[in-house]
Amino acid sequence: MEQEKIFERLLQLLSRHYSHRTAGTFVDYLDPGELRRQLDLDHAGPGGDWEQVFDWVEKYLAHAVKTDHPGYLNRMWAGANLPSVIGEMVAAATNTSACTFETAPVSTLMEKYLLRTMLELVGFANGSGQMTTGSSNANMIAMMAARNSVDPAVKQSGLFGRPELFAFVNADAHYSMDRAANILGLGADHLIKIPVDEHGRMDVAQLEQRLATVVAAGGSPFFVAATAGTTVRGSYDPLPPLLALRERYNFWLHVDGAWGGAVIFSDRLRGQYLPDLAQADSFTLDFHKMLGTALMCNVLLFNQRPDILRQVCSAGDESYIFRDGEDGEIRDLGTQSLQCGRRVDSLKWFLDWKFYGQAGLAARVEHYLELCEYAESQVNQRDELEMVVPRESFNICFRFRTPPSIPPAEFNRELRERMHRTGRSLVGTGVVNGELVLRLLITNVNVETPEIDTFFQAVIDTGRELLAERSSRNQASPTRQA
Ligand SMILES: Cc1ncc(COP(=O)(O)O)c(C=O)c1O
User: Which has the closest alpha carbon to 89: 22, 15, 35, 151?
Assistant: First the structure.
C-alpha cells in the first residue's frame, strides 16, 4: 500500500471513531478471556501485511474505552482536547526525542516557553522546571531535589552513614510518595504520614509534633509535601501554617497539584484554594488531568532555584550528547532530566495553550466546580444516595444507601461492576475513613447537568435492580442471609 494511502485510511478510521466518541455506550465490554480470543493475539501472518495492521487497529478501536463519553466518569482525565490530540499525532509521526535541541528544536523552544509561562503564572521568581512523565515522577524529582539540597554530599556518597532523613505527607497523599521514598533510599519508615482533619487536610498540629519528635531524635525533616487536591477526597492541605512551620524547621515545601493544581488558571479559585502557592519550593501540575491535554503532560516547577535540576539530575558522562548554548544557557533539556529519550510533550501543551488560553482553561475549571456543586446537591436530594463525606472541592464521594442487612462496601462495589459491564457508566472508587465510596470526578467537557442526572439515575436504577435480585434470591432460599 502506498504511504499516502496508509495515512488516508488511518485518518478515515480515526475520524469515524472520533465522531462516535460520545455515542452508544462508553465501552463494548468483553470479559478478558473473550476479548483475548477475539483479538487473536497469536495470529501468525506472513508479516509486512498492511491489511493485517489495519485489522488490529480496527479491533483496538472497537474495544477502546471511549474516554470522551459522558458515561466515563472514572478517572482524573477524560477524552482529550483536540489541539493536543493533533500535537500527539504530529509528535508520533515525526518521532524524535526532546532531549537535545538538535533532534527537537521546536519542541525545546516550546518547552522553554512553557516553563517561562508557567513560572510566571505560579509566581516563582528566578525559577526553573521541566516537563516530566507525570506527577508521580515529578513528586519523586522534587523529593530528590530536596534530599540533595539538604545534604549535597548524598549525590556522591549516597545515604550511608549520614543523618536520617524524614519526609512528611498527608496520610491521603498519592502513592507516588511511597514509591519515591522507596526509589530514593529513604524507605517507608522515613515517609511519615500525617493524619487528616475532618476535611481530609493534613493535621498541622500533628505534623508539628512529628517534626519535633524527629528533630529531638537527631533526624532531619527535609521534605513536606502538601497535596493540592487529594486523590480520593479532593482536599487541599493548608499552605499558610505549613509555610510557618518551614520557617522553624527549614524543610523543603513541595505542592503536589497533580489534580487540584489546575485552580491556578482562575484567579478566583486560586485565591480560594492555593493563595500562598508562590512561596512554596516546588509545585507539580498535570495538564493531562482536569485541563484535558492528551496523556501524558506535566510540569514540575522550582522556586528561586535556576540550576537545581542540572545539579540534581545530571550525572555520568554526557559529553557525547549534550551541549550548552554559546551564551551558556542550557540548550539540551536532557541534561536536567532523569531520562535520556524524552517524548515530545511540549507541542500538545503549546497547541492547547494557544487555542484555549488562560481564560479558557480558567472557565473550564470554574465550570467543573459548578457541576460538582450541582452533583453534590443531586446526591443530597435523592433518597437512595448519600454523600459519605461532604465535598471539599472537585471530588464527589458518595454511595448508594443500603438497608442495614447489606454491607455498603460490598453492595456499592457490585453496583459499580454492574454499571461497568452493562456499559451504563464507569465511576471510580476509593476509601474514606475506612468506608468505600464511589468517587465521581467531572473532568469531561461532554458532561453537563443532564449527563449528571443520567448518571445518578443509572446508579439508582442499578442499585434498585440489585436490591430486587437479592430480595428474589432470598425469597427463593429463605435460609440465606440477605
Ligand atoms: C494527588 C496526586 N498526585 C500525583 C498523582 C500521579 O499523577 P500521574 O498519574 O501524572 O503520575 C495523582 C494521580 O492520580 C494524584 O491524584
Answer: 15
Which atom of ligand 1 sits closest to the CA of residue 139?
Answer: 4
Give, in order, the Cα–Cα distances in Å from 86 to each of 80, 106, 350, 375.
10, 16, 11, 32
Rounded to whole angstroms, the Cα distance separating 45 from 110 reads: 42
Cell 475513613 belongs to residue: 433
**Cα(58) to centroid(ligand 1), Å:** 31
Atom of ligand 1 nearest to the CA of 298: 10
The C-alpha cell that represents 19 in the structure block: 465522531
Q: For atom 11 of ligand 1, which residue has the closest CA?
A: 136
Does the pTM surpass 0.70? The reply is yes
Q: How far is the CA of 174 from the centre of ligand 1 (A)?
A: 6
Q: Rounded to the nearest whole angstrom, what is the distance from the C-alpha of residue 209 to the centroid of ligand 1?
A: 28
- Ligand 1 — pocket residues by CB below 6 A? 76, 134-136, 174, 176, 227, 231, 256, 258-259, 286, 298
Q: How far is the CA of 300 from the centre of ligand 1 (A)?
A: 13
Identify the three-state secondary structure at position 286. strand
Whose C-alpha lies nearest to ligand 1, atom 16?
Answer: 231
Compute the distance between CA of residue 23 and CA of residue 41 in angstroms, rounded to an integer. Answer: 28
Substitution candidate for ligand 1 out of 132, 141, 169, 176 with most atoms within 8 A of CB: 176
CB 248 within 8 A of CB 191: no
Q: With cut-offs at 50, 70 and 90, classify the pLDDT of residue 55.
A: very high
For the stretch 234-275, pLDDT in tens is: 999 999 999 999 999 999 999 999 999 999 999 999 999 999
Report how far ligand 1's centroid is from the alpha carbon of 335 (Å): 25
Contact of 216 with 373, CB cutoff 8 Å: no
Widest CA span of the chain, in angstroms? 84
Residue 166, CA distances (Å) to 55, 212, 236, 245, 265 in order: 53, 12, 22, 15, 33
Q: 10 in helix, strand or coil?
A: helix
Ligand 1 centroid–CA 258 distance in Å is: 5
Measuring CA to CA, which residue among 137, 130, 181 is closest to residue 159? Answer: 181
The Cα 449–Cα 452 span in angstroms is 5
Q: Which cell numbers hold the place of 17? A: 471513531
- Whole-number pLDDT of residue 482: 42
Contact 66, 21 (CB under 8 A): yes
Q: Could you tell me how many residues make up the chain?
A: 482
Which are the contacts of 3, defined by CB distance < 8 A and separation ≥ 6?
A: none
